[in-house]
Amino acid sequence: MEIYGIDLADITFRGIHALMAAAWLLFDFIVFWLHFKIKDPDYPLDSRLERAKVMHGIDTVVAYVFLLMLPSGIILCYLTDTRIFTTAWLSWKHLLYGIIVADALYLLPISGTALKNLKAIKAGAENADELNREIKTRMNQAMPAVWLIWILVFAASLISVLNLKAPKGQDYIFRKTAAQAEQPIRPSK
Amino acid sequence: MFLFWLLWIVVVIGGFYMGIGYGLQMYRQGFETSLLLNTVIYLGCAFYGAPKFLKLILKR
After folding, report:
1. Least CB-CB distance to A185: which of B6, B29, B49?
2. CA–CA gap between residue A101 and residue A99 (Å, rounded)
3. Residue A185 has pLDDT above 70, yes or no
4. Mutation test of the interface with chain A: which of B5, B29, B39, choosing the one with the most A Cβ atoms within 10 A?
5. Which runs of E-coded beta strand occur in A4-162?
6. How do A6-7 and A2-3 pair as beta strands?
7. Distance between CA atoms of residues B50 and B40, nearest Å
8. Pair B9, B39: CB distance under 8 Å
9. How confident is the model at residue A180 (pLDDT cuts 50, 70, 90)?
10. Among candidate residues B25, B39, B6, B33, the one with its CA nearest the CA of residue A98
11. Chain centroid offset of residue B16 CA
């Protein structure tokens, strides 16, 4: 469907895909920024709990963005005439996403620990020191994985920008020709 | 709960789709590093998530 020569499906999915990547990068950074005070036992409990609630909410949005990235990307491939399994640059981008999926599976049991423990402390749990220690340990354990995701999303975005296509004709903008850029992957000798 | 469903659907179904797709591509075209790595990582995630996804379905 076109309006004023603009392919609506094409531009919508490009926009959604790009916005999701931008939101992912921003929200991941906010989560990183929030975690310092949450894991600090000297900071007032109510403020830590408030921050943990905000962080949990943002993490939920990030989870949706992460999970919808794959289907939106596959739809985008069909709309922009990009072969999914035979385009060299896309296979490297998929590899980055695959590492992010594995990383997310590693983070899954860690997420929610801070909010759960802080709620328990607020409710008057006797082992507050132990719960605080667990928050700190789990968050320190998670942060390298969070940073890795941030770097991989940034790298995947960069790969996408360098391989952008013009909506009409789906030719690469920053590459010489579609034929050169979309050469099938050659087996190594 | 919806998020959990979405998570395991993407990890398992998406993982098998991508892993098998790249595996078939490697079978047709021969060995290539990115194809192999994609096959391993996506199928690995799909196999890891499959029992959890099944448990989620059976629990319903």
Report:
1. B29
2. 5
3. no
4. B29
5. 6-7
6. antiparallel
7. 15
8. no
9. low
10. B39
11. 3
Q: Chain A partners of B3 at a C-beta cutoff of 8 Å? A: 60, 63-64, 67
The answer to whether position A35 is within a domain reads yes
Half-sphere exposure (Cβ direction) of B3: Cα atoms closer than 13 Å: 10
Cβ contacts of A91 on chain B, cutoff 8 Å = 22, 34-35, 38
| Chain position carrying tokens 């620990």 | A113
pLDDT tens-place string over residues A101-148: 999 999 988 888 889 999 999 998 888 899 999 999 999 999 899 999
Q: Which among B14, B25, B41 is the nearest to A85, CB-wise?
A: B25
pLDDT value at residue A109: 86
Query: What is the rounded radius of gyration, in angstroms, for the C-alpha atoms of chain A?
Result: 21
Domain that holds residue A70: 7-163+175-181
Burial group, residue B3, by CB count within 10 angstroms (0-12, 13-18, 19+): exposed
Q: Is residue A169 part of a domain?
A: no
Residue of chain B whose Cα is closest to the Cα of A89: B34
How many domains would you assign to chain A?
1
